[in-house]
Predict the structure.
Amino acid sequence: MQKIVLIGSGNVAHHLAQALYDAGHQILQVISKNKANASALAQKVNADFESDLGKIKRADFAIVAVNDDAIAEVASKIKKLPVAHTSGSVSVENTAVFYPVQTFSKGISLELKEVPFCVSSQDKAFEKTLIQVAKSISNKVFKIKEKQRKVLHLAAVFACNFTNQMYTIAEQLLVESALDFEILKPLIAETANKIQANDPQNAQTGPAKRKDLQTITNHIALLEDKDLIDVYKLISNQILKQE
Amino acid sequence: MQKIVLIGSGNVAHHLAQALYDAGHQILQVISKNKANASALAQKVNADFESDLGKIKRADFAIVAVNDDAIAEVASKIKKLPVAHTSGSVSVENTAVFYPVQTFSKGISLELKEVPFCVSSQDKAFEKTLIQVAKSISNKVFKIKEKQRKVLHLAAVFACNFTNQMYTIAEQLLVESALDFEILKPLIAETANKIQANDPQNAQTGPAKRKDLQTITNHIALLEDKDLIDVYKLISNQILKQE
C-alpha cells in the first residue's frame, strides 16, 4: 500500500484516483487549481483537497496528471517527493513515467484493469514501486525506455486520433448524402474487432488491397474536397504498395 | 418464404446462405465454379450444387455474391429470374442491390442481425421483396438510392480500409521499436467504441486536436518514412483546421 499525492483533476486523474483507491492505496491529497472538480474527486477517494502546490503533504510519491504543457512547471515545484507523470510524450528531468495507454473521456467509464500501463524511471527503486502500483490496478504493465515511449505515443496518434479522423470523414460524407452514420457503426466495430486477433496488414480488404483501380478512380471522382482527395490517394497508394 | 438461387461461394455467400436458410428461406441452388467451397456450402444449407450458370433453377430471385469485376458478366447470363447483387460499388443494369455493409472474413463469424443491409431496385415489387428478405435476417434495413450507395461505399473505405491502414502503420512503428502491438489494442477498441455513442468529431483527442504544435513537430521528427510523414502532416492539418 502506497501513500500517494495526486496532482490534477481531469479525466486521467479521476480514473487513476478511483482505481488506486479501490486497490487499497491511500490518496493523501488531490491538488488542483480547479476547485469544483478536485474537491469532488478528493471526497470520492477520501483525500484532502488542496489548491496550493506549496502545501503538498509528505507521501511516498506524487502522480502528476495534468495537461502536457503544465507538467514541467508542476514537477519543478515538487521538491520533497519522487514524481511520476502520466503523459505519453512529455520528458521531464527527474520525473518518472506512469503512462496509461488509453483515451479517457469525461463520463465514459473504463475498466482500468485492461488498460496497458507503461512505466519508466531513472531511479530503479522508484521504478520498481511504480511497477508494483501499476500491477495493483492493471493486468497489463510494461517497462519501457524513453525512446520507446515516444514511438508508442506516435503510434497511438495513428491508431486513435487518425483513426477517429477517418470516422469523422466517413460521417461527413454520409451526412452530405442524407445517410445515417448508424449504417457504418457495425463496420467500424468489426474493423477494430478484427485486429484484436489478426495482424492488421493481413486483415486489410477493399479496393486498394485488391488493386481495383477502377473503383479507386470512381471514388476519387465522387470526392469534392481537395484534402479528402489527397488523403484518399495517399493512403490508397500506401496500401497498393504493400506486400 | 422465398426460393433463392445463390451465386458465389466466398465469405459473403457463406454468411448470407446460412442466415437466409436459418430464417426459413429455401436456397434452391448454390452456383459457383469453386466446387470445393460451393458444394460444402450447398450441403450446409440443404441446396443443390451447380457449376454451370446455364442450369440455373426457377426460383423467386437470384443473389449474385461474387467479386465486383465478375458481377456484370454473371448477371448478364441470368435471363429467367430477377437478380440482386451484394456489392457496394458496382452498378449493373436491371440488377437490384442487396448490400450488407460489413467486412466479411473467412473463419470470422458474424451476427448478421446487426449488419445493416442497403437495398435498392428499379423494380419496385422486387425491391419490396428484397426489403422483406433483408428484414428477415437483419434488424437494420435501409432503402437507398444509387448515388447514396456509391457515397456509402466510399465512406466505408475511410471507416474500414483506411482505418485498418492506420492500425497497420501503428503496428509497424511499434515493431520497429521492439514494442508489442498488444499495448495499443485496448486503445483501438475504445476509439471504435467511443463513436458508437458519440459524434466522432466531438470524440477527437490528441496533439492536433489541442493544437499542440510542439508535439506534432516532435512526432514528424521521429518518422523516417516519407509516406508516413505525408500522412501524418495531411491528417494533422485536417484536424487542426476543424471547428
